[in-house]
Design a protein that fits this description.
Number of strands: 10
Largest sheet: 7 strands, mixed
Helix content: 25-40%
Radius of gyration: 20 Å
Structural class: alpha/beta
Number of helices: 9
Shape: globular
Length: 301
C-alpha cells in the first residue's frame, strides 16, 4: 500500500526553511543564503521512503509585498497552504515572534490546518529553561500537533521530523517518480544555482533586484570527443550601476561568480561545463508582471 503526504514549510524569511527542505530530501533542491527572501517561488522537494512519498513545499518567507515580484511571492505562500495535509511552521529560537508568524498562525486557524511547530537554532540557546519558556509561550498561541525544538545545522532532533509528518500520510499513489528529488524545471533550477552564487559571492553589496535566466543549454562534445555542456546564462539587474558591481573591476566579480557556479553545475551534469555569463539591465523588472512570469517566478494559480 503506497501513501503520500504534502507538507507546506512556512515561516519568516531566513528561518531555515530551505536548509530544512534540503536536509529532509537529502539533496540540494533549494538555494540557501544568509539573505532574507532567498527563495522566490514555492519549491517541491520530494522524498520517497519505501511506501511513503513526502512532498515538501518550501515557500518564500512571508513578508509585506512592495513589488509585483513580492506580490507573486506572497501569493505563492498562500497557494502552497491550499490542499496540504499538514503545515510546518519554522520559528527562530533566538528571535522574538514577529507579526509575520502571528499572521501565519491566524491563517492556519482560518484553514483549520494541522501544524507542526519546529523551533530552529536551539543550539544557540545557552539556558535551557529559556527554551521551556519559549515552548510554553508558543503552545498557548495555537493547538500545534507537535512542538519540536531542533537545529538543522547541528542535526538536533531532526530525526523526529519525518515520523511526526508521516502521521498525516494518506493512502494514495505516488504523485512523482520515486527517484525524483524535485519537480522544478531544469532551467529554473540551473538559474537558481547561479543566483545562489551571486548572493553568496557579493555579500552586502549585492543588488537585491537580480534575476537569472538560462538562454542556451547544449550538451555537446569537445574536439577530443569528451562530453561537455555549453551553458549561456544572463544575469538581469535593474540599474547600470548594478551591472558594474556584478561585473566588477576587469570582470573579477563575474569571474568569481562563474567559478563558484561552475563547480555546482559540473557536479549536477557530471561533465565539464563551459559557462558563459552576461549581465543585462532591465529597469524595474520586479514590477513587470509579464517578465516575472517569463522567468518562471509567478505563483501557480
Amino acid at each position: 500500500m503506497t501513501k503520500s503526504v504534502f507538507i507546506a514549510i512556512t515561516g519568516r524569511p531566513n528561518a531555515g526553511k530551505s536548509s530544512l527542505t534540503n536536509f529532509l530530501v537529502g539533496e540540494k533542491v533549494a538555494i540557501v543564503s544568509e539573505k532574507p527572501q532567498t527563495t522566490r517561488t514555492k519549491i517541491n522537494g520530494i522524498l520517497t521512503k519505501s511506501e511513503c512519498q513526502y512532498v515538501f513545499i518550501d515557500t518564500p518567507g512571508m513578508h509585506k509585498a512592495h513589488t509585483k515580484l513580492s506580490e507573486e511571492m506572497v501569493k505563492s505562500i498562500r497557494n502552497s497552504m491550499e490542499d496540504v495535509d499538514v503545515a510546518i511552521l519554522m520559528v527562530d529560537a533566538v528571535k522574538k515572534l514577529s507579526k509575520i508568524e502571528e499572521n501565519l498562525i491566524e491563517s492556519f486557524r482560518l484553514r483549520k490546518l494541522d501544524v507542526i511547530l519546529l523551533i530552529n537554532k536551539v543550539d544557540l540557546i545557552k539556558d535551557k529553561s529559556e527554551l521551556l519558556g519559549i515552548i510554553d509561550n508558543l503552545s498557548g498561541m495555537y493547538d500545534f500537533t507537535e512542538i519540536i525544538p531542533i537545529s538543522v545545522k547541528n542535526k538536533i532532533n531532526t530525526d523526529l521530523i519525518l515520523p511526526a509528518v508521516e502521521k498525516f500520510a494518506k493512502e494514495s499513489p505516488h504523485f512523482f517518480p520515486d527517484d525524483l528529488p524535485t519537480d522544478q524545471p531544469e532551467k529554473i533550477w540551473l538559474a537558481e544555482i547561479v543566483r545562489e552564487k551571486i548572493l553568496r559571492t557579493m555579500h552586502e553589496e549585492i543588488p537585491h533586484g537580480v534575476a537569472v535566466e538560462i538562454e542556451d543549454l547544449d550538451e555537446t562534445k569537445t574536439n577530443k570527443g569528451e562530453d561537455i555542456v555549453d551553458l549561456g546564462v544572463v544575469i538581469i539587474c535593474e540599474k547600470a550601476s548594478h551591472k558594474g558591481m556584478l561585473i566588477g573591476k576587469q570582470g573579477a566579480m563575474l569571474k568569481k561568480i562563474g567559478s563558484a557556479a561552475r563547480e555546482d553545475l559540473e557536479d549536477y551534469f557530471g561533465v565539464k561545463v563551459n559557462l558563459k555569463l552576461w549581465v543585462k539591465v532591465k529597469e524595474d523588472w520586479r514590477n513587470k508582471e509579464a517578465f516575472i512570469l517569463e522567468l518562471g517566478l509567478g505563483a501557480d494559480d
